[in-house]
Specification:
By secondary structure, the chain is α/β, with parallel strands linked by helices. It is built from eleven helices and 13 strands. The strands form three sheets. The protein has a six-stranded mixed β-sheet, sandwiched between helices. A four-stranded parallel β-sheet has the order 2-1-6-7, with helices on both faces. It has a three-stranded antiparallel β-sheet with strand order 4-3-5, with helices on one face. Strand 11, helix 10 and strand 12 form a beta-alpha-beta unit. Helix 3 crosses helix 4.
Amino acid sequence: MDNINEKIALITDSSCDLPEEIIRNHSIFTLPLRVIYPDREYRDGVDITPQEIYDRMPDEIPKTSMASPLDCKNLLQSIRDQGIKNVLSINISSGLSGTFDMIKMISKDFPDLNIIAIDSKSLSIGLGFMVYEAAKMISQGLKIDEVKEKIISLREKIKIFYCLPILEYLKKGGRINTVAATIGDIMDIKPIISINEEGKYYSHAKVRGRKKSLEKLVEIAKEISEGHIVNLAVMHGNAEKEAAKIKETLSNLPNVKDIIFGQIGPALGVHTGPGLVGVCIHVL
């Protein structure tokens, strides 16, 4: 990796929800998504925290936007100025954000760089696990094409599931059918939401009541993990106590190699509202 021509710059976006320590230790470049209130635009995770968003809900619900094309252009310019020729960008599902398509478009302005963009078809720590694995491969000296192939094959081994106390925020953000959301809230139905092969949300299971939805998350994680060594993540959006109980339960599984615990970023919190609890299973 001493050869500058072999060096790889790794880019992701702020939806990846990786712990700051991992991002720093592996020199991962992160493009911030945008959180937009009527009076001001914030860079996700830079100018605004998840708690600040939840504190302003339900009176103020901001909009979100993909990472800024100017930020992307400036970052690629900076990478080029450092003499790095290879760039690997792994980003939030193109089914949920325009960030991936934007990066592909901006890449055309840098024909001298070897830029490979991968659609994670996931988000949050599902994306984060892919970025983390790519960072480890790069540090081991793998070539960019090798990393790309391994990350694409990794996509189907990473599953993400989450539940919410109410569906109102997903409905407001246009992420879920209005009729389905209204009926769900009236009937106290709590869908377990996942992401399909196209990188879009779908309802994986439907249960009634918050307690049962959290129990279902644990059940799903156990089912997928059975017979495999896995890395797990338990993420939450202003629901630390409930998520911590799930982490404690899953930590006791005999086949768990590593477990990450954390809060989802501000931009994702806009679309889910407070109370999200999610699990991500990475089958090794």
